[in-house]
Amino acid sequence: MRLKDKVAIITGSTSGMGRATAELFAREGAKVVVTGRNEERAQEVVGKIKSEGFEATYVIADMLNLDSLKKIVDTAVNNYGTVDILFNNAGLLSVAPIEKLTLDEWERVFKVNVTAPLYLTQLVVPIMNAKGKGVIINTSSVAGAHAHHGNAAYVSSKHAIAGLTKSMAWELGPEIRVNAILPGAIMTAMVDSVGGEAAVKHLIEGSPLKKAGQPEEIARAALFLCTDDSSFVTGQLIRVDGGIDI
Ligand SMILES: NC(=O)c1ccc[n+]([C@@H]2O[C@H](COP(=O)([O-])OP(=O)(O)OC[C@H]3O[C@@H](n4cnc5c(N)ncnc54)[C@H](OP(=O)(O)O)[C@@H]3O)[C@@H](O)[C@H]2O)c1
Predict the structure, then answer these.
(1) Is residue 195 part of a domain?
(2) Contact of 113 with 107, CB cutoff 8 Å
(3) If pLDDT is split at 50, 70 and 90, which confidence band does 203 have?
(4) Can you tell me which atom of ligand 1 is nearest the CA of 187?
């Protein structure tokens, strides 16, 4: 029970790596606030956690609607009394060449991948500061370290959240530790939406581990970043990617 009685908000936890993290954190004793737009899947995640005897609740909120994000933090405080962990995991993938990329699309991607994490951080910081302790994890990507062809908005947003992570670590320490996870190819609905394993074959073949990652492998990295095992780790961009681009 490495997160006993901790309260964790995990955005984008109706699916993929957010869901795997919600389930792992609950099994480790955390009270988890699950969020996403899809109520059926949110209910399913919370139902599974509760059926195993652990604690979770859900809030339906769209990262594009910043006003709805207050509801997430309010629910954590009203139901569980505080917030110890914020995992900014929800993300929007965008595939469009620069000539065809609309400014609307650019703004949507930045809103979900950068602005919403910033705003949620602003909402939880006073709570964490009052306790003198807190942990924030942002989700960048290997696309936050290298550019790939045809997804400039996504690449730029994931570079931005990596930079924001370092600024947050400087400004929010010593009370709050802030790190980012940079996943490689992880088998989730996001990868399925662009062609599944075949679409990331080049990443798998170009990596020492020669395989795609599973959502649970991100969840375990997130767990490390939320416990005192990582008490001297902040401002870091932690790649969990099977070693691609080394
Ligand atoms: N999979 C990969 O290979 C990979 C690689 C690098 C980085 N990442 C990053 O990892 C994170 C998790 O992705 P994943 O692969 O686990 O994808 P996923 O299975 O598609 O899950 C994405 C989650 O984000 C939520 N979400 C998306 N747009 C949202 C919005 N506008 N408002 C609220 N919630 C929203 C979705 O919830 P609803 O559908 O319920 O709204 C879902 O729970 C993302 O930040 C992604 O960019 C993924």
Answers:
(1) no
(2) no
(3) confident
(4) 1
